[in-house]
Amino acid sequence: MKLNTNSNIYTFVYMTVVVVIVAVLLAVVSSALKPLKDANVLLDKQKQILGALKFNLDSLDTDPATKYLSLVNDTLTFGEKEVYVANLDGEVKYILPLEGKGLWGGIGGYLVLNEDKNTIYGVNFNHEGETPGLGAKITEYKIFRKQFEGTHIRNEEGKVVSVAVLKSGKIAEGKDQVDAISGATITSEGVSKMLEEELINNYKEFLSDVPAAEENVEPIEEKEAEDVESED
Amino acid sequence: MLSQKTKDTLLGPLNANNPVVVQILGICSALAVTVQLKPALVMGIAVTIIVAMSNVIVSLIRNTIPMRVRIIVQLVVVAALVTLVSEVLKAFAYDVAMQLSVYLGLIITNCILMGRLEAFAMTNNAWDSLLDGLGNGLGYAIILVIVAFVRELFGSGQLLGLPIFPESWYAAGYENNGMMLMPAMALILVGCVIWAHRAYNERKQK
Q: Does residue B190 fall inside a structural domain?
């Protein structure tokens, strides 16, 4: 007897079986690959932070994960925000994860501040789907990221004002600025807004407790000394 | 070695019956992933694998599929395969998965897949369906690679991310063509490929 493949019951049962098989298959594969995927996400984050710390990932003496763990030794938490503390050749660097919006989707990055919580040491950006060759250039060092180095996120009075990303020719009032990427206006503005929002609002707590630059040199040294003592 | 029919099934889609330039299918993703060569290559390979596999699976179960819900069954098969491929890429080739981002998921809606399943796999055996899937996938990949080659070369001055033109050219006033990076340029280039393809084939027929 030939099965009637057009009956309602057959259709119903058939679809149920198909969907259950597919669901089980995908669930098994997804959970089996989860450790690998999570490891990739973590490694990607560590590589990006190393990039922000201006390491060339192709010429590291160890693998990125080991290098990362040897540098970053503390995490400060401020509400939902985290700041990683790295020790680079005896100097303290603060790593601030950033999140914002570009043209097509989210953009993000890591901003590395010097001990004075003012001078930018390095920066790295990532994006979900900015236009390759245009907005996606925010990830490139020579073209875009390099400009941030040495700029200041505070104005002369010590107030946090962020760094502006502007088309060349425009001048930012009272803050440092870098050149936007031509042809990628909205992505560049996204970077500018992301920095502004994160530094002025979200990292307020972290950035608020620094006195003027000259005064903070000694207290921080003392604090470090205390830390060493307490560890002993 | 191969019979004429097998040959037609496998090689036809590469030229005479190309899914992109003759049937004008899958244009949308051709615009999206062809700014650079690498994502275009990966996209081509991913689509080839997915068309071939879904063709085989649908062909194997074609006699059991209830006719009234056949499109849904095909869609489930394709969606499952695409999800599998994207999971595997995320686990083993994270960089590439990130680069393709949303377009990988959008393979599900690629008209070539549904087209081949409906037009071929539903009525042919598994072996022929496999060849048909491979042929169509590769036919799609070729066009993607041609378009991406031109766009990356003239738009960014690179191929696979490696600089092609010497610095001295830029010093002498050569500039990358920003137009090439715009989605519209992909359409125009696909148009040019279609034109060249038709002109060549018509001449051959005469």
A: yes
